[in-house]
């Protein structure tokens, strides 16, 4: 039994996000290209003699109980396997919260992986994914990581070759967005053909290793809702493109915006333009990072 484990829970961006339809059960059928980035949360797991789950975070407004996905992930395995004792989870958040980067899902995925290893449960990655989807649709991808085509409600995953490496600038505006609100306000069945991004074209550009074509084909149908409500998203995209981004787009349901750059030098110019320009008061967090292409959590510890 492993007494302590430190993990990295990486964030993701969507190189393409399409919503195909709203299903009768209320869920939306999606088709997305998912990409892990270098920005990550740190998670420290420690076994306890006394029963229970203890969660500590570096952000005072995050829950430390069953409302936190890391708690749910630990509780899921501990209850299923009647595991002895308890576990302490110390979470240091670096991925922006409620930002369209699957930070919470990635944290949950890391805890599932960690508890499995620490208690020697012997669950395969596929078995962890089946359990993870009960916590959130993005959790299976966050266990897999890398570059992938995501379908269904997000749980049907097809690995893709690593995307062409580039510098990524992330900018989180000072607004909060509810994923539920975005999907509720998207008329999925009334979208025009031109509203749908070319997901297959993005995947083909990735297979060819063509960064410029991949960037040029990027699209996110949810921008129709989120950017309309929060124009600052479009303003940030415009600054990134002005300073050399091959393309800039909102990740997930937002509001985080990312730009892809051929060099870190160009990304840093855009970074300083956003930090020092007229949008500085409207941007909460800025990061320059890159793509992270390890296939599974176990490869990135």
UniProtKB/TrEMBL annotation:
GO terms for molecular function: 4-(cytidine 5'-diphospho)-2-C-methyl-D-erythritol kinase activity; ATP binding. ATP binds at residues 96-106. It is an enzyme of class 2 (transferase). Pfam families: GHMP_kinases_C, GHMP_kinases_N. Its EC number is 2.7.1.148. InterPro entries: GHMP_kinase_C_dom, GHMP_kinase_C_sf, GHMP_kinase_N_dom, IspE, Ribosomal_Su5_D2-typ_SF, Ribsml_uS5_D2-typ_fold_subgr. The keyword Ubl conjugation does not apply. Residues 203-275 form the GHMP kinase C-terminal domain. Residues 68-146 form the GHMP kinase N-terminal domain. Pathway: Isoprenoid biosynthesis; isopentenyl diphosphate biosynthesis via DXP pathway; isopentenyl diphosphate from 1-deoxy-D-xylulose 5-phosphate: step 3/6. Gene3D superfamilies: 3.30.230.10, GHMP kinase, C-terminal domain. The active site is at 12, 138. GO terms for biological process: isopentenyl diphosphate biosynthetic process, methylerythritol 4-phosphate pathway; terpenoid biosynthetic process. Keywords: ATP-binding, Isoprene biosynthesis, Kinase, Nucleotide-binding, Transferase. It catalyses: 4-CDP-2-C-methyl-D-erythritol + ATP = 4-CDP-2-C-methyl-D-erythritol 2-phosphate + ADP + H(+). NCBIfam families: ispE, PRK14608.1. Catalyzes the phosphorylation of the position 2 hydroxy group of 4-diphosphocytidyl-2C-methyl-D-erythritol. Belongs to the GHMP kinase family. IspE subfamily. This is 4-diphosphocytidyl-2-C-methyl-D-erythritol kinase. It comes from Candidatus Lachnoclostridium stercoripullorum.
